[in-house]
Write a structure and sequence with these properties.
This protein is an alpha/beta fold. The chain has 3 domains: about 30-140 and about 275-380 and about 465-485, P-loop containing nucleotide triphosphate hydrolases (Rossmann fold), CATH 3.40.50.300; about 145-270, no CATH class; about 385-460, no CATH class. Helices cover about 40% and strands about 15% of the residues. It contains 19 helices and 14 strands. The chain has helices at about 1-25, 40-50, 60-65, 85-95, 120-125, 140-145, 155-165, 165-170, 175-180, 190-210, 220-225, 255-275, 290-295, 295-315, 320-325, 350-365, 430-435, 440-445, 475-480, and strands spanning about 25-35, 70-75, 110-115, 130-135, 280-285, 330-335, 370-375, 385-390, 395-400, 410, 410-415, 420, 460, 465. The strands form 4 sheets. A 7-stranded mixed beta sheet has the order 2-3-4-1-5-6-7. It has a 3-stranded antiparallel beta sheet with strand order 8-9-12, with no helix packed on it. The structure holds guanosine-5'-triphosphate (GTP) and magnesium ion. Magnesium ion (MG) binds near residues 40, 41 and 103.
């Protein structure tokens, strides 16, 4: 008993100390999210690496004005969240040969401290200033789960089944569909059956995740990344093939699945919004816009819907459950089209315009207001170089890089380790996007898309340490935190 009280007092003193230190060096909480494989891990690794190692950041004002004194990693601020394994990811990206990091399976966080010289004379009197940047990497699919709170198990089942019957997903849903055919929702509840079904259903979601053409938005998000909740009842459920208007009988398999769906909302969806999401102040949403455009019109439509859902989380209705728990509201959101190194720089502005158009359409649904929203095109790690090729008297802007093994170009299998140059194709003109045919123009854009190996690091200047090259990472940094380093 005494021990407990002493522990509590010690905890209180600690949190008072934390509070005092936060007053001196306030943290800025930046959320990095995006759908599966959109480039979150690579983005955070490259961002930290460029800041810590003095990368070239001409559009990030504190660096350009030589006011950024140093950036360094500090111990993880939040004891309950795993640390973002920065060193491991950097080692993978800069190893020999360089490789892309593995897919992430849990939320993670990292604290970076930036020491800088303030611009205002009065603040300079007190010496240098510091900002803690707390970066949280979490999957965009967890934001999509917000919409589950408004759904009954029956309507979620119907929607999920319809999605799994889309042409693009039908084949990977085969095993799970076969299983569903053998299940009677009205039979008695059965744990073994629930485990098998949930494994098949989450296996189907995971397969969709690995193949970008299989429509990007996947939910329930935690089934893709169970982390510590693996095998818990709150994740052991799946949609069922129910007759319209079917009601569940007490003790039936249908009732069991509906109960677990509710447990998922209570024990998984809500806690994420309460403990993590509500603390964020700035947000970057990474979007693999090029990959989605390459996957066709259904994928683009699905992405638009997903972006609208994401925006709804940032600005929920005034009296909604979420608005009540949101502390400081997110005041800046950057939607960044990633992997811009897949196209020539002459197309970067067009990619940015496409991203802005996708966000504009999504904002109409979400009735976005209050936060400053921007669109950008970035490559956190630039894996290609640019070159020009001549074809029938015309100069073609090309990109060149070393493709990852096992890919084909124009029907030909590419040789391992050999650099290839390709003309990636044209994105629509800005003028085409401002007309009503914007969606069609985006759909019609055909991009030649290869996956490239990460680059070999280069030294940016005389005596400088080698740094991973990027495209427009500095502009993203300026929007996300430039004003906090004034
Ligand atoms: N060329 C290029 N490829 C990139 C870049 N960023 C990401 N990629 C590619 O996209 C893949 C996914 O990147 P990640 O950073 O792992 O994406 P993620 O969003 O963390 O993925 P999950 O953790 O699986 O959700 C990488 O394996 C690379 O192939 C980039 O800046 N340039
Ligand atoms: Mg990741």
């Amino acid at each position: 008993m005494v021990g407990l009280i002493l522990d509590d007092i010690a905890g209180l003193i600690r949190s008072a100390e934390d509070y005092a230190s936060e007053l001196i060096t306030p943290p800025l909480r930046l959320g990095v999210t995006g759908l599966a494989r959109s480039g979150k891990t690579v983005f955070i690794t490259a961002l930290v690496h460029n800041l810590v190692s003095g990368g070239r950041l001409p559009f990030f004002q504190p660096a350009a004005q030589r006011r950024l004194i140093r950036a360094y990693l500090e111990p993880q601020p939040d004891d309950s969240v795993p640390r973002f394994p920065y060193e491991k990811h950097l080692e993978t990206l800069t190893g020999s040969p360089p490789r892309w990091p593995e897919s992430t399976d849990r939320i993670s966080q990292l604290r970076l401290t930036l020491e800088f010289e303030p611009t205002a004379l009065i603040r300079r009197q007190f010496g240098t200033a510091a900002l803690h940047l707390d970066i949280t990497d979490y999957p965009g699919e967890w934001l999509l789960d917000l919409s589950l709170l408004r759904m009954s198990y029956e309507s979620w089942s119907a929607e999920s089944l319809a999605l799994s019957h889309m042409r693009q997903r039908l084949q990977v849903a085969n095993d799970w569909h076969a299983f569903l055919g053998s299940v009677d929702p009205d039979a008695d509840e059965d744990e073994a059956l629930a485990i098998t079904g949930a494994e098949l259903f989450s296996g189907y979601l995971r397969k969709c995740r690995m193949e970008s053409h299989l429509i990007p938005a996947l939910s329930p998000g935690r089934l893709l990344m169970p982390g510590d909740l693996k095998d818990s009842p709150a994740l052991t459920f799946m949609p069922l093939n129910l007759a319209p208007g079917a009601e569940s009988r007490k003790g039936s398999f249908h009732a069991m699945m509906a109960r677990r769906f509710e447990a998922y909302k209570t024990h998984v969806v809500k806690p994420f919004f309460i403990h993590h999401f509500s603390r964020l102040e700035r947000q970057i949403v990474l979007v693999d816009a090029l990959g989605t455009m390459n996957a066709g019109s259904a994928a683009i439509a699905d992405l638009e819907k997903a972006l609208a859902s994401v925006l709804t989380c940032f600005r929920p209705g005034p009296n909604s459950w979420l608005s009540l728990i949101l502390g400081k509201k997110i005041d800046r959101i950057l939607f960044a089209a990633t992997k811009a190194d897949h196209i020539h720089h002459t197309s970067h502005q067009r990619l940015e315009a496409i991203m802005a158009e996708l966000v504009r359409k999504a904002s109409i649904h979400a009735q976005m207001s209050g936060a400053e929203v921007q669109a950008a095109a970035v490559a956190a790690v630039r894996a290609t170089r640019e070159m020009e090729a001549r074809d029938i008297g015309r100069t073609m802007p090309c990109i060149a890089g070393v493709p990852l093994p096992g890919q084909t170009l124009d029907g030909r299998m590419l040789e391992d380790g050999q650099e290839v140059a390709l003309f990636p194709g044209d994105l629509p003109e800005l003028s085409e996007l401002s007309e009503s045919g914007a969606a069609k123009a985006i759909e019609d854009a055909s991009i030649e898309f290869l996956r490239f190996q990460p680059p070999i690091m280069t030294a940016e200047g005389f005596g400088a340490a080698p740094v991973l090259p990027h495209i427009r990472l500095d502009r993203a940094l300026q929007f996300l935190l430039g004003d906090k380093l004034e």
